[in-house]
Write a structure and sequence with these properties.
By secondary structure, the protein is an all-alpha fold. The chain has 16 helices and 2 strands. It has helices at residues 4-29, 34-43, 50-63, 72-102, 114-125, 131-158, 164-194, 203-230, 235-262, 265-268, 274-278, 283-291, 294-303, 311-323, 326-346, 352-366, and strands spanning 107-108, 111-112. The chain has a two-stranded antiparallel sheet with strand order 1-2. Its EC number is 2.5.1.-.
């Protein structure tokens, strides 16, 4: 089976080829579109490729040792899974461009976010109108462009599959993922605004719902199932991949929520306590609100979401959340969800070598520092 490092190389090669082709199309329309092409290439040149890796491992989990064959059908599947893996990375990039815009985030991966890049372009060139408006409008269109390109990449891969049913299943899963992420993003926005009118005893469940639909499903569950579908996986195999992928995806996002409050900016590429300034109503915050005395809870509610929080206020909120035991409880939930995933993996009707690789990947995504 193709090892993960080689898979990442293949996905990077596919992305480079695809983006070069789309850049030539944009250039044929107008050289003014070069900044969009350049940003897309730069933005998609980095990242951990977790979604690509899970898609590939989902394919291997179903295909098993047969994935090493060089017959035409297997080669077509390999091409399809590399294209699908690349499509997932482009979809992820589109989601990040829009997410940074919605959250007013200035940086992503240690560099300016898309809307800030185009805002700076406007300001440097001395164009008419408001630079911020231009940056936001351009980022919306860039995100839409990347979303469309992710569809094109997926379709190019699925078109070569010899099994039309496998292609339909993979496409259906991709479509479902796209819907879930979009409404999950809306639910995240809703929680940031509507929490004040919601009963306190519902806020944790509502935050957990955001975790599932905004992140867990599209980060891990959907890539696994898309890969398994490309290999022609049956219902039992695809359900087993879901049973592993969903709890692992929840653990993945809960780790991300911790990093959004406590992560090292030099490692995460985001300012310390960024989620506090953005007002993210995460499971961590819901747990803290359950544990804090009324006065501390009111202070948390007053400060959370203030973009002008200074470093000392961020440190104070970090201490408050940690000292009430919310961090320890969230770590326990991460462990519980990871254990659920590993238990599902142990009995899954999939290739054992691929299961071992998935276990390694599970440890990597739940113990990461960025």
């Amino acid at each position: 089976m193709v090892p993960a490092p080689r898979l990442v190389d293949l996905v990077n090669e596919r992305l480079e080829e695809f983006l070069d082709d789309r850049a030539s199309i944009l250039r044929s329309i107008a050289p003014d579109l070069d900044p969009m092409s350049e940003f897309s290439k730069r933005f998609l040149s980095g990242g951990k490729r977790f979604r690509a890796q899970f898609c590939h491992r989902g394919w291997q989990a179903v295909r098993g040792p047969a994935g090493d064959r060089s017959d035409a059908a297997t080669l077509a599947e390999r091409h399809a899974v590399v294209s699908a893996s690349a499509a997932l990375e482009v979809f992820h990039a589109a989601a990040l461009v829009h997410d940074d815009l919605i959250d007013h985030s200035d940086t992503r991966r240690g560099a300016p976010s898309a809307h800030r890049v185009f805002e700076a372009q406007h300001r440097t060139a001395g164009w008419a109108g408001d630079a911020g408006d231009y940056g936001r409008a351009t980022a919306i269109l860039l995100g839409d462009l990347l979303l469309g390109w992710s569809d094109e990449l997926l379709d190019e891969g699925l078109a070569v599959l010899p099994d039309p049913a496998a292609a339909r299943t993979a496409r259906t899963e991709f479509n479902r993922m796209r819907t879930e992420v979009t409404v999950g993003q809306y639910l995240d926005i809703l929680e940031e605004r509507a929490w004040l009118a919601m009963p306190d005893d519902e806020q944790r469940a509502r935050a957990e719902r955001v975790v599932v639909y905004k992140s867990a499903k599209y980060s891990i569950e959907a890539p696994l199932v898309i890969g398994g579908a490309i290999a022609g996986g049956g219902p039992a195999q695809l359900q087993a991949l879901q049973a592993f992928g969903l709890p692992l995806g929840i653990a993945f996002q809960l780790r991300d929520d911790l990093l959004g409050v406590y992560g090292d900016p030099d490692v995460t590429g985001k300012p310390a306590g960024d989620d506090l300034r953005e007002g993210k109503r995460t499971v961590l915050i819901a747990i803290a609100r359950e544990r804090l005395a009324s006065g501390q809870r009111r202070l948390l509610d007053e400060l959370l979401g203030d973009p002008a929080l200074d470093a000392e206020q961020v440190r104070m909120l970090q201490r408050t959340i940690r000292e009430c035991g919310a961090v320890d409880e969230l770590e326990r939930v991460i462990d519980e969800q990871t254990d659920r995933a590993m238990a599902a993996l142990s009995s899954a009707p999939i290739d054992r070598d691929a299961a071992g690789a998935l276990a390694d990947l599970a440890r990597a995504v739940t113990r990461r520092a960025s």
